[in-house]
Amino acid sequence: MIRIGSLSVFLCLLLAAPILAAAQEQTPPAPEHRQLEETQAFEMLESIAESIPALRSSDNRIFLTTVVADLLWSRDEKRARSMFETLTKEMSAAIASLDPSDQRSFNTLSMIQQRRRETVELLARCDPEMALTFLRATRPPVALRSQDNEYSSEANVELHLAGLLANKKPEQALQLARAQLKRGLSSSLISVLTQFGPKNVEAARTLHGEIVNKLTSANLITDYDAANVAWSLVGSFPPPQANEDTYRTLIEFMATAVLSAQPDFRQGNSLVQNSAHQIPAYMAQFEKYAPARAGALKQWTQQVKVTLDTSAAIYQEINDVNQNGTIEDLLALTGKYGREHHAQLLQYAVSKAVSTGDGNRARQIIMDFVPEGIQRTQMLEQLTNQMFWTSVNENKITEARQTLGRVKDLEQRFNLLMNLTNNIIGRGDKNQATSLLAEATALLDAMPANASKLGAQLQLAQSYSTIDSQQSVALLQSVILQTNRLVSAAAVLDGFENSYLKEGEWMKRGYTGLSNLVNSIEQNLGTLARVDVEGARSLSKQLERPEIRLMAQLEIARNLLSPGTNSVNYNRIIRHYPARRQMNPR
User: What are the C-alpha distances in Å from 157 to residues 375, 478, 517, 573?
Assistant: First the structure.
């Protein structure tokens, strides 16, 4: 019996892994076949678009409308614009329905804000003016904004758009950035600044000058935001991009601010230590633009290092020895410092041995210095992984397979084997990949029937899609049948331990392993569609819930329209969501 809750860890790892099989270069289809695929994809999009209004969940309607409209833009701009206008009204209504007195509204807004960022990104590529109109029309009320949450920060959304507009609409980008600069300093301003192209040097320099002017009224030793912006600005926007006089003003201001602080880290100011770490990296800039202060800055930095507390000094010595010393130097420090530092020292020593290709020395270090127990076991497993990837990266496949033979845990061995297989697929070695897939299939058969095995089937299906599509179809069909049963059970249990449904429909952005499983199935079907359209479409029809079926068909259509590269990473839209937490309304 598969337990729904136990899917979380395995499937989160599965979804975080790159889809190497899908990413490998494939032989382009014949023009007539490519045209047929596009026709099929647009037919699917039209069918999905017609089904959207019948969905009950606004989140599902918003997601589907966003992606469908973007994919239709090149073929039917008028239809796509109409859908984006509908989306604007839908999202505005969703925001207006939120109750600032209800804590749950802030979690809902976090998801809406991320969706806004994604929609802004799509629209900015198609029509920057429409993107700006959308952003302003869907602005949340002040009572719902949370400045300390990345996904709920209106400033971040607007600065994201400013960066996207920097080359197409520099004046609008500058206007948006200026508006946010008035509210305060943010590292996102640096991102906007660096996205202005060579044709927009004046706009970039104007923004740079205004940021520097804002900085000169801040205290770099007490204001963390200002300090982060200042140090980022030094490295990311130097002359000739920046005006030399403005850059000199920044450097001189920073030198004055740093030297005004007492070089005593024991006062507990971490910004003092941060400045001491940054100054050596930018000493050339200080010597050029503030030469009279360079010597004092070097002396100040040395004084900070002298006053580092004992713990910080120990870590600094360990890091210095790791970077410049030998394995023997690292091991010698285990006798100098307490046991709380031994794990780090031994890990550094083992990594240094691995980097030189001496796996036996690395293993001997663990056996000699780590007592028998959990820590030794974990370090030996980690060493196995390191040696495995070293062999793979150096194309020593025989050695990699020998390393696999030392892995006793079936699940770990399967995962490493699949990583090796996908690496081989990416290199175009079909014969060796087929042999490895057969070995992986045998391992899968030996695994107990649980959540991990279900996830392993998905990995295997994903890799088989470009080698043997019939095998991929068979594996996916088995997973889909089991998933239908799990989804039905989850719908019955909805609200008892986990939430799976919203407004009676399956949530695209779930917080459970089962939600990740459903999303992964959709992605696998999209991958399969690139080599077997009919197989993928047939499997999608076996998904019992209509909203899940629509999501899978959308993924198939997207893959048919962009078989080589993704213009927008739609998988990020469903995989990257903020962790659920309670936020206090402001």
Answer: 44, 42, 30, 15
